[in-house]
Design a protein that fits this description.
The structure is a homodimer of 315-residue chains.
Chain A (H helix, E strand, L loop, with lengths): L8 E6 L4 E6 L5 E7 L3 H7 L1 H11 L8 E5 L13 E2 L2 E2 H6 L2 E2 L7 E3 L3 E3 L6 E3 L2 H7 L1 H4 L3 E6 L4 E7 L2 E8 L1 H11 L2 H5 L11 H13 L3 H14 L3 H24 L6 E5 L2 H12 L4 E5 H15 L10
Parallel strand pairs in A: 1-4, 4-8, 5-9, 11-14, 14-15
Antiparallel strand pairs in A: 1-2, 2-3, 6-13, 7-8, 9-10, 11-12, 12-13
Helix pairs in contact in A: 4-12, 6-10, 8-10, 9-10, 10-11
């Protein structure tokens, strides 16, 4: 019997630019996985059902295998809209509000995103709520700040199994548009090297930004440091990265306060080291969780909450 | 005798994307003017001498007419490099450091830009120093804050005819790259209407940003306000404009302080009304000077300082 024939459910993280599919057995363990760049932007054109069916078929999954999905597939412009759940909301209620895709050849449910309907800080997320559910055991009880860095970094207040509020800092996107389309493209060049967390330029610019969170006052300084002080392209990229990450941390801790307990940092790859370094510079203790593992654990939790997997077998 | 045959000098403001040429008589009065999009980016390829000679010829200027130039023509990648003058520096010394273009068919001098060689706030300007010289009489003595809004807004501390320090806030550029290349392009659309200073959305977002200067915490809120509250494209543009201008003012007044005297706002067109409204929201009194007039007056002052025009005749 092949591994994939043991598959009991597919778990799908469908973002704007990325798609990840795992096949899980009845205990929630991974039997196969694959990644693709057929995120929302491509699936909108190819068709969500077509894309998912093809991946599952190529993975040798049974024809009627059910699937639990999170992320942008549930957006208005996605597969079907999974209406936002308003915060405050418990993680159990969020996962339980998964929406069934009608007339699909298999049982497909999409986890809803979250909306913060505030006049001063309106905000939305899709996908990170599932990551959060995946680190619920790490968070535990009490009031915790969770930081999920990325294109649109999310900071969340988690309190006793519920999400009470959150905010978005588009740090990754600002790095991309400013390094690619502003005057800083002359400073940074087309292919900056990856920024290392022990780069002193990263640290210096981060430290400055941690002080007051001010980005606009310092952006042009990267250009000027190139003209006046010979700051090279790789260090210019490090300066921009330090500036934006430091400002994000200053701004988010100003909004959410410092709560004594470590910040839970949910992140994958080299970005985690940059955020951990930046938080260390600010004297913030962190507990790191892998973002890829977190979303998978959250999808398993969502499958169980919706009776697509039985609770008992993995316990 | 035609008007242009009375020309005693050409005054040239040569920016990154724009070129303006005035013909002045011996008293410094304008006898003709024209505008072109042959800024640095185009003149680099066509040749600065070729571009200027053609405009002057088409304007009917005498063949050997001298020219006083400010702006990016003096950058390293410009016509010839007019090395930065370091601040603090007197306006008289800055104008007097104009550099002669060698082996041109006419007497051409380029006013240098300014450099602030600071480890924490390195900065440069080219062109605004000439605008400042043009509003010197408006500034008078004492210590004054001058705000020159634009693609790269400059804030300057002017003290008794000298520039003691300055900073750059790339507000116009951030509006352009964020509205055109970030997720906010979905909120704002391709052709947002011009923002009116009495737009309440502009005022609300400006007021919020004036409070703490925090841009990153609020950018994604424009997208969320579209998804949750139906904020339309024109209001989304107004929100981004208010957010960026408010944050600039909050940040610049944090760096330079509030000095009792009105802020001198050197600006042209509709942008002036937005900045004046934003400063009024912050309780800052302003004295407005037209930026086009200022640069022309500064070029006349530079021509006199370099004995290209005699002092007496305009007084």
């Amino acid at each position: 019997m092949s591994a994939t024939s043991k598959a009991a459910i597919a778990a799908v993280d469908w973002g704007t630019t990325r798609l990840r599919v795992w096949l899980l057995d009845a205990s929630g363990s991974v039997v196969d996985e694959r990644r693709s760049d057929e995120g929302l932007l491509i699936a909108q054109h190819k068709g969500f059902a077509v894309v998912l069916d093809r991946h599952l078929q190529e993975m040798g999954a049974p024809a009627a295998l059910p699937a639990i999905v999170c992320g942008m597939a549930g957006a208005r412009q996605g597969w079907i809209e999974a209406p936002y759940v308003d915060v405050p909301a418990s993680l159990a209620d969020i996962l339980g509000a998964a929406v069934r895709v009608p007339s699909a050849g298999r049982d497909i449910r999409i986890v809803p995103g979250l909306a913060q309907r505030s006049a001063r800080t309106p905000d939305v997320m899709r996908g990170e709520e599932t990551q959060l559910a995946g680190v619920a055991s790490l968070i535990g009880s009490g009031s915790h700040v969770v930081c999920m860095p990325g294109t649109h970094s999310k900071w969340v207040i988690a309190e006793g199994g519920a999400i009470s509020g959150f905010g978005t800092w588009p740090t990754g996107e600002m790095f991309s548009v400013l390094s690619g389309h502003s005057i800083l493209r002359h400073s940074i060049g087309e292919k900056p090297a990856a920024v290392a967390p022990d780069n002193q330029v990263f640290r210096d610019w981060c430290q400055e930004a941690l002080f007051d969170g001010d980005i606009a006052a310092r952006l042009f300084g990267i250009r000027a440091a190139g003209l006046l002080n010979g700051l090279g392209p790789d260090d210019a990229a490090a300066a921009l990265s330090g500036l934006l990450i430091g400002a994000e941390i200053a701004s988010a801790t100003r909004r959410f306060g410092r709560r004594g307990a470590p910040v839970v940092l949910v992140v994958s790859g080299s970005l985690g080291a940059l955020y951990a370094e930046a938080m260390a510079l600010d004297g913030i203790a962190v507990k790191i969780a892998d973002a890829d593992q977190a979303v998978l654990a959250g999808l398993v939790a969502a499958a169980r909450r919706n009776k697509m997997l039985t609770d008992g077998e993995a316990r």
